[in-house]
Design a protein that fits this description.
heterodimer; A: 378 residues; alpha/beta; two-stranded antiparallel sheet; 13 helices; 11 strands; 34% helix; 18% strand; globular; B: 143 residues; five-stranded antiparallel β-sheet; three-stranded antiparallel β-sheet
Chain lengths: 378, 143
């Protein structure tokens, strides 16, 4: 086992565009805005950046996209490029940047993401799945719904548990001035929504959003020397890959988020009960429920008891997705969760969890194919 | 996720055809004749679908197509109340399911049933040959 990097590196700046519909903006332009704001937030000159990690836009894959972005910000980084593991990419790239910094390969890394599926093409979300189009097997959401039905049938999870995730996200998002959807949702209203791809209704599903978000990563020592105002230490990270397609995976109701969470908690020397706040990837309601189970917040099949009665809302035992998550703030794949984790640890979130010292963040990609966990501290 | 469903004035929409290649052709040919087959590894005994050139367990390329018994169990299912493709505009509500064959492989299918909301996880189902857009496909019905 190598050196423990817990606390060695910090997120020293965050920056984002507006979320929602941003007509006329290219992903490069949005990335540049997010990077400019993140650098200003960190108090870092652009020319000090020597690593540029980019998550490729989901709606359009472009060869050498990392180089196009480096050119747009006039930079010749030592390390750069695109990481392709879907929505787990942002946490993974931050972790890779930390490992590269510790190995002496770079000093200040920017990690960034932009996409415009709302005003551009959202086809990647609804297209037929593989060879199974003849059966009417369409859309990403259907694969998640397939998992949800199995979870409900095998473990007895009620629809109310899915609803609790949506209700929490919408309550928090309603109080976030930057959220794309600021309309609270009552559990009764959720239960009465018509099915879209049963067992899912519309409000089980991620928003579709344009926007960009970036972070600046450096060593804790460098942040001290530079006098960074509010550096947020990364205490732990971990990864895991389920890999099998939903139709093939032998166990549909648990994922390698378990390995990701355990690795991150072990690195941080912490337990699930030490977490004061959580930002859990909620592209669909079932994703957040299963991640909470896999991270050890509840036993498999007992998640309904954990999430009920406002327990994952502000004021509950584990306030979750305090800026609204993918269901209410923005459908962007994951960077917004990292930003909210940073704000909670700095103590300047819109819905601040009082005295919060530890935040766990999950990112996942594909249909629970890839997983990454990040633990932030103070 | 706003998906616009195109209407009748356009030419009739067709679904993307499956990728029928050197490896997968026997599977689709058999389905066309009403037979469901799967790949069996002669080295390690693993059975699998969909078609691939090497056994995903032992990585060897020494396999043969075997006939399935047609017995399976229902792993999970969803019910589409919305068409995501113009070729399926008049289909909702329809179901898509994952079944596990008695021999082990899992596959996407449709369950032929009046009300899919009455299905039960793990219930036994049996193979029913069908056709879609000129291709043989494998549907299942409750036993």
């Amino acid at each position: 086992m190598g050196a423990n990097l817990s606390g060695k590196a910090v997120i020293s700046g965050i920056g984002a565009t507006r979320f929602g519909a941003l007509p006329g903006r290219t992903t490069i332009s949005m990335n540049v805005e997010a990077i400019r704001k993140a650098l200003n937030d960190a108090g870092v000159e652009k020319d000090a950046v020597d690593a540029l990690y980019v998550k490729c836009p989901t709606s359009k894959f472009e060869l050498m996209y990392g180089q196009k972005l480096a050119e747009a910000i006039g930079l010749q980084p030592r390390i750069g490029g695109v990481w392709d593991s879907g929505g787990s990419s942002n946490v993974i790239m931050i972790s890779q940047a930390i490992m590269a910094i510790e190995a002496g390969q770079c000093e200040i890394a920017v990690v960034t993401f932009a996409d415009n599926p709302k005003t551009g093409s959202a086809a990647s979300y609804s297209q037929p799945r593989g060879d199974d189009a003849l059966y009417g097997w369409f859309a990403v959401l259907s694969s998640y719904a397939m998992i949800a039905r199995r979870h409900m049938g095998e473990l007895g999870t009620p629809r109310e548990a899915l609803g609790a995730v949506a209700v929490a996200a919408r309550r928090h998002g309603a109080q976030n001035p930057n959220a794309q959807l600021r309309k609270p949702l009552a559990l009764d209203d959720y239960m009465n929504l018509p099915p879209m791809v049963a067992p899912f209704c519309r409000d089980d599903c991620t928003l579709v959003s344009d926007g960009a978000a970036a972070v600046v990563v450096m060593s804790a020592e460098r942040a001290r020397k530079m006098g960074v105002a509010k550096p947020v230490p990364v205490l732990g990270f971990g990864f895991g890959q389920t890999s099998w397609d939903v139709t093939q995976r032998p166990d549909m109701t648990s994922t390698q988020a378990k390995v990701a969470g355990e690795t991150a908690l072990k690195m941080a020397g912490l337990k699930p009960k030490d977490m004061d706040v959580a930002q859990i990837y909620d592209c669909f309601t079932i994703t957040a429920l299963m991640t909470l189970e896999d991270y050890g917040f509840a036993k498999k099949g007992q998640i309904a008891d954990f999430v009920k009665g406002g327990n994952i809302e502000i004021g509950g035992e584990l306030p979750m997705n305090t800026s609204g998550g993918l269901l209410s703030e923005t459908g962007m794949p994951g960077m917004q969760l990292i930003h909210e984790g940073v704000r909670q640890m700095r103590g300047d979130a819109s819905l601040q969890v009082k005295g919060a010292k530890h935040c766990i963040i999950s990112n996942q990609g594909g249909v629970m194919h890839t997983h990454a966990a990040l633990i932030l501290g103070q | 996720m706003n998906t616009t469903v195109q209407t009748a004035s356009k030419p009739k929409a067709t679904l993307p055809d499956p990728d029928i290649n050197e490896v997968s052709k026997p599977y689709w040919d058999a389905l066309k004749k009403g037979k469901l087959t799967f790949q069996h590894c002669r080295k390690c005994g693993n059975n699998w679908l969909p078609a691939r050139g090497e056994c995903p367990k032992c990585l060897e390329a020494d396999w043969a197509w075997h006939d399935a018994s047609g017995k399976a169990k229902l792993i999970s299912w969803v019910v589409f109340h919305r068409a995501f493709h113009p070729a399926f505009a008049d289909r909702p509500p329809y179901n898509v399911a994952v079944v596990e064959l008695a021999e082990g492989p899992r596959m996407i299918t449709n369950i032929v049933v009046e009300d899919a909301e009455k299905l039960v996880i793990d219930q036994p189902v049996t193979f029913m040959p069908a056709e879609e857009q000129g291709h043989g496909i494998a549907r299942f019905r409750p036993v």
